[in-house]
Design brief:
Largest sheet: 5 strands, mixed
Helix content: 55-70%
Shape: rod-shaped
Number of helices: 13
Low-confidence stretches: 81-86, 88-94, 96-113, 463-467
Number of strands: 13
Radius of gyration: 54 Å
Order of helices and strands: HEEHHHEEHEEHHHHEHEEHEEHHEE
Mean pLDDT: 76
Length: about 525
């Protein structure tokens, strides 16, 4: 699959995930908004019903007081005049008046004559007419009384203080009942204030403050009164935000899983991209290695054919030259095979080390002797300083030799073209550690690349230098071998002023066999 195809698929899937995540968050916000609107409607409806109940209770109180006065007045009139005509005058708000004359005597009883009995007194029709007239008079009277009570309420109720007009126990009970009937079962605080904001009554909650008043629900009480006499009840729900968030809490896991899917997809895309890059590097590695292996094999084959020629065998000088070519190409072939083995080791992520006690000073001295010719051929110098008084470590001699060789070979590869190479190797002891330093005066490593040089297949950019060959496995191999020996390695470099590698290895005690 081409790289562009991977990025197109990744872009489409990434946009799809982001759209789903956006829709999920939008749906959660919409659910929270709807729940808040439902809650607001329920609370406002409950507060309106509470205000209506309080107004009805006040009207009922006025009616009860008026009925008591009427009963007292009727009893007094009955004692003073039984058959006298009672004259009542009622004044109405529009300035008109009503005068009603009513007999104070009790209403005559309706007597039904027996069949065949002689009739005396008024007839049945006359008695029914009298009863009907009496009922009309009483209706007019009671209606006039009701109008007078209502007129009295309009003129006198608003003059009473708001604290005297309200039953605060009734207010608390009605608030609780109406809110529960509307499905609102949250704890609440409330206060009663005037229309101007002066507090008349509080529920006694200590955490109720001015900020709560701004977030409270309000409802006017006695709405028909003048504005300066009107009361306001304010209700605040301290756990409202938790209630709203709790309504969409069940959707939070789905949102979390959606985020996990997005992160997993991004990680998968990055891994696929890296794997594709590694695959391309491995293919280049195989192609280059095939070419590198073919060259020495061809050279060795050609040299072997020349040795079969009798004229070559008769010339000792030619025979020596051909033998040297075969030896050099064999070494080159061996080096390339070691690169393949390093590649295989990284793929298996395991390595069988043949560990034994090794004198690092002697091992490095042998590498320096063999490598000095290569350094001298490029116009450089190689110096060694063996200050370690205890150079014995447990190591695989072949792999440890390759580690030293790779670090020296890097110094030759990345030397400055305008400056002669100066390579120095030093060993010393610190506590129970053996330290090995390999330092050069080459082109150095940039700060941003210094942390990546031990990664597999990573190669430092060399600018216009194109003669440096490699596959990015050398330092990764070095780090793995050192760590397999329970040691550590670090790099110190300043771009343009060379690089220094420091290896730390645990030493063997001298008295141990």
């Amino acid at each position: 699959m081409r790289k562009s195809t991977i990025w197109i698929l990744g872009g489409v899937m990434g946009v799809s995930f982001l759209i789903l995540l956006y829709l999920q968050i939008g749906f959660m916000n919409q659910m929270a908004t709807m729940r808040r609107q439902q809650f607001d409607d329920s609370v406002k409806r409950s507060l309106y019903q509470v205000a209506h109940t309080l107004e009805m209770e006040e009207a009922k109180k006025y009616l009860e007081e008026d009925i008591v006065q009427m009963q007292r007045s009727s009893a007094f009139s009955a004692d003073n005049a039984d058959n006298q005509v009672v004259k009542q005058v009622y004044n109405f708000p529009d300035g008109s008046s009503l005068v009603i004359q009513e007999s104070a005597s009790p209403m005559p009883s309706l007597q039904i004559p027996r069949p065949g009995a002689p009739q005396s007194g008024p007839s049945v029709s006359e008695q029914s007419r009298a009863v009907h007239e009496n009922m009309v008079k009483r209706y007019i009277t009671q209606r006039a009384l009701m109008d007078e009570v209502i007129y009295s309420m309009l003129n006198t109720a608003g003059l009473r203080p708001l604290r005297d007009r309200l039953d605060f126990n009734l207010l608390a009970n009605e608030l609780t009942a109406e809110l529960r009937n509307s499905g609102v079962d949250l704890p609440f605080h409330y206060v009663v204030t005037t229309n101007s904001g002066r507090v008349i009554y509080t529920c006694g909650c200590k955490d109720f403050n001015e900020k709560n008043l701004k977030d409270s629900y309000t409802q006017a009480i006695f709405r028909n009164d003048p504005a300066n006499r009107m009361g306001v009840v304010r209700v605040y729900f301290p756990t409202l935000q938790h209630y709203i968030k709790g309504s969409v809490r069940y959707m939070i896991p789905s949102l979390i899983f959606m985020v996990i899917l997005v992160v997993s997809f991004i990680c998968t895309l990055v891994i696929i991209s890296r794997q594709k890059k590694l695959t391309e590097i491995k293919n280049d590695f195989v192609n280059n290695m095939t070419h590198e292996l073919k060259t020495p094999i061809s050279t060795i084959s050609l040299a072997a054919q020349m040795l079969s020629d009798e004229s070559v065998t008769k010339s000792p000088q030619m025979f020596k030259h051909i033998s040297g070519v075969i030896t050099d190409e064999t070494k080159r072939l061996r080096f390339q095979v070691e690169k393949v083995l390093q590649m295989s080791m990284f793929e298996r992520k395991s390595n069988n080390l043949k560990v034994r006690e090794v004198d690092v000073n002697d091992l490095i001295a042998g590498v320096v002797r063999n490598f000095a010719i290569k350094v001298e051929n490029c116009g450089g110098t190689l110096g060694a300083q063996y200050d370690a008084w205890n150079p014995f470590v447990l190591a695989d001699e072949m792999h440890f030799t390759n580690v030293i060789f790779n670090l020296m070979d890097n110094a030759v590869k990345y030397k400055r073209p305008d400056v002669d190479l100066k390579l120095e190797v030093r060993t010393w002891n610190e506590q129970d550690k053996l330290l090995i330093s390999i330092q050069d005066n080459g082109i150095g490593i940039k700060r941003e690349d210094l942390k990546k040089i031990f990664e597999k297949y990573f190669r430092v950019h060399t600018g216009n230098l194109h003669d440096v060959k490699g596959f990015g496995l050398g330092l990764a191999y070095v780090k793995k071998i050192i760590e397999d020996h329970k040691g550590s390695i670090r790099a110190e470099s300043e771009y343009g002023n060379g690089t220094r590698f420091v290896i730390s290895m645990p030493v063997q005690k001298i008295d141990e066999e």
